[in-house]
Amino acid sequence: MIVKFWGTRGSIPTGITAPQIRAKIQQALAGAAGLDLADEATLNRYLERLPFTVQGTVGGNTPCIEVRSGDQLLIIDAGSGIRLLGLDLMQRGFAGGRRQADILVTHTHWDHIQGWPFFPPAFIPGNRFTFHSPFANLFERLTRQQSPEFFPVPLSYMSAALEFAPITPEQWQAIGRFRVRATRVSHPGETYAYRIEDGQSALVIATDSEYKRADPTSTETFVDFFHQADLLVFDSQYNLTEALDKPDWGHSTPMMGAELAYRAHVKRLALFHHDPTSSDDKIWGGKEQAEAYLLRRHVPSNACEIMVAFDGLELEI
Predict the structure, then answer these.
(1) Where in the chain is the domain with CATH 3.60.15.10?
(2) What is the mean pLDDT of residues 268-286?
(3) Residue 185 neighbours by CB distance under 10 Å
(4) Selecting from 3.40.225.10, 3.40.50.300, 3.40.50.360, 3.60.15.10, what CATH number does the domain 2-14+57-316 have?
(5) Rounded to whole angstroms, how far apart are CA atoms 166 and 142?
(6) pLDDT exceeds cutoff 90 at 213
(7) How many Å is the Cα radius of gyration of the chain?
(8) Measured on CA atoms in the order 216, 222, 227, 229, is the torsion positive or negative?
(9) How far apart are CA 225 and CA 117, in angstroms?
(10) Torsion angle of alpha carbons 147, 151, 153, 157, nearest 10°?
C-alpha cells in the first residue's frame, strides 16, 4: 500500500509567510559560516544536512490523503490538498476520462471538503468518483457547499459521474481490493475514523478526534481499532496545554497519539492535522515530545516510529 499526503494542515489552509521564509534563510546562512558555498558539491552536502524545519515546511493544505494498492486509487477527504492531487492525476490519465477513484469522507467540516470544487478530474466527462461515508445526505452537503451563495460553480456542472455509496459504521465493507471499517470518534458533529486493509497492510486514519481520558477502559475501543496498524494517521493538532484549554474542540495531542499507538502495537505513527498557528518548529517539537514520552514509559525506540506528516510525504506500508 502506498500512502501520500497532499494536505496535512487542520482547520484552514495556511500559507507560509515572507517573515517565516526569511527566518529559514537566515538559519540556513548562519549555519553555513566558513563553508565554500560556491562549490556545488559542498553546497549540496550542506543542504542535505539541514533539518527539515529549515530546508522545508509541513505545508498549508487541509486534509487529503491518497492511498494506492495495485491499480486502485482511494482518496481520503477533500480538503484543499485535493486540488494538487487532482492536478497530479490529470498527468496520470484522468485528463482523458474513463478513470475511476473512490473517496472516503471522515466528516464534512469545511477543511475536509473545501478542495472538492477545485478538483480538475471531476470536470472531465467519463471519469467516475464514488463517495463512501456513513452520511446519508452527503450529496446534499456537497451541493450546498457549491450553492450560488458560496461558490459560482454548482456541483451539477461537474461532468464526471458522481456516485454515493453508504457505509455502515462498525461493519467491514469491500471497496474494490480494499476492505474498510468506520468507527465514530469524538468531534463536534458526526465524524468517523477509518481502518483500511488490502490483505498485506493496514492503515488507520483517525483525524479530528478527542480523547478526554487515557485510562484503558475509556480507550479500549480505539486501541482495538488501531491494533497492529502499519500506519496510524493521528490528529495531533494541539499540545497538552492547548488541549486542556480547548475541551470539546475535538482534537488531540502527539503524546496521546504515542500512548495509543504504543498500546495498540502500531508500527508507525504519523502526526497529522496541524494547527494553523503552529510553526514547523512547534510541530516537530511535538514529535520530540511524543518520542520522549515513550522513552519515559520505557518503550524501545524501535517499537513505534513517530513521524510528522507533511504535504508531499509518501510512504510505502
Answers:
(1) 2-14+57-316
(2) 98
(3) 23
(4) 3.60.15.10
(5) 15
(6) no
(7) 20
(8) negative
(9) 32
(10) -40
Using CA of residue 240, residue 317, residue 206, residue 62, what is the dihedral sign?
positive
**Quick one: CA dihedral 180, 184, 185, 190, positive or negative?**
positive
Phi, psi of 253 (to 5 degrees): -130, 160
With left for phi above 0 and alpha for psi between -120 and 50, is residue 205 left, alpha or beta?
beta
Burial of 231 (0-12, 13-18, 19+ CB in 10 A): buried
Q: What span, in angstroms and rounded, lies between the C-alpha atoms of 48 and 210?
A: 37
Q: Which of 81, 82, 86, 164 is nearest to 123 (CA)?
A: 86
Region 110-122: mean pLDDT is 98
Measured between alpha carbons, how far is residue 109 from residues 25, 85, 112, 145, 208 in Å?
35, 20, 6, 10, 10
Residue 194 C-alpha from the chain's centroid: 12
- Overall average pLDDT of the 207-220 stretch: 91
Lookup result for grid cell 514509559 = 297
3-state secondary structure 245-295: HCCCCCCCCHHHHHHHHHHCCCCEEEEECECCCCCHHHHHHHHHHHHHHHH
